[in-house]
Amino acid sequence: MTRRAKPAICLMLGWVALLWLLEGLDVATGNALDSFGIQPRDPAELVDVVPAAFLHFGFGHLSANTLPLLLLGFVAALRSGVRRFLAVVLLIILASGLGVWLTAPPQSNTAGASGVVFGLFGYLVVRGFIDRKLLDIGIGVVVAAVYGSLVWGALPTDSGISWQGHLFGLLGGVLAAFAFKEHSRPVPAGATVRQVP
Questions:
Q1: SS3 state at 110
Q2: d(CA 120, CA 65)
Q3: Using an 8 Å Cβ cutoff, are 39 and 112 in contact?
Q4: Alpha-carbon separation of residue 111 from 8, 24, 135, 164 (angstroms)
């Protein structure tokens, strides 16, 4: 696991740095990047499903997502390895973005990494139970205890917040835990199997 720590932290620090750089560019250009948010049910907007996950509507919006993205992303990349983690994140981004595209209110514009945050939360909470790994079950319990209040953000309680992105991100994370389940290695032919008493 320790050999995964350096790539995991480098990936997440680089990701967060990219988000801050993009928001700085957005502000410097008079919010020109906001046009890459998702506007629902317009076929031309499907190309914005992925970019929207990397853009924010102001530094306050970005600040709210930075720490949970950094922490949950690091833990997920550390436990899954960078390659599997990137596949998990792509599935979460697609689930969250397409869910927004299908269900968000008309004339809305949605962007932000919170769909990924909710997805990583869901992924980490259920992953250990699916892979049947005691350590990952423990991590899931801790994540649920620390970030469990996130679940309220997936409910339609605030019209100014994209609960659709949160909900579909959360569902995407759970789906990713099943889709990228770690398979146990088969016992080689001729190997002696011993049970621990």
A1: strand
A2: 12
A3: no
A4: 24, 15, 34, 11
3-state secondary structure of 38: strand
Cβ-contact 116, 169 below 8 angstroms: yes
Can you give the pLDDT at residue 95? 98
Q: Give me the average pLDDT of each 10-residue run along the chain (197 residues).
A: 88 98 98 97 97 98 98 97 97 98 96 98 97 96 96 88 96 98 63 47
Fold of domain 2-179: Rhomboid-like fold (1.20.1540)
Neighbours of 189 (CB within 10 A): 5
DSSP secondary structure code for residue 29 in this structure: T
> Nearest Cα to 54, choosing from 44, 40, 43, 65?
65
Q: Which two tokens stand for residue 28?
A: 């410097």
- pTM for the full model? 0.91
Asked whether the beta carbons of 37 and 111 are under 8 A apart, the reply is: yes
pLDDT of residue 157: 85
The pLDDT of residue 190 is: 57
CA distances from 114 to 64, 68, 110 (A): 9, 9, 11
- Give me the phi and psi of 3, to 5 degrees please: -70, -15
Expressed in percent and rounded to 5, the helix, strand and coil fractions of the chain are: 70, 0, 25
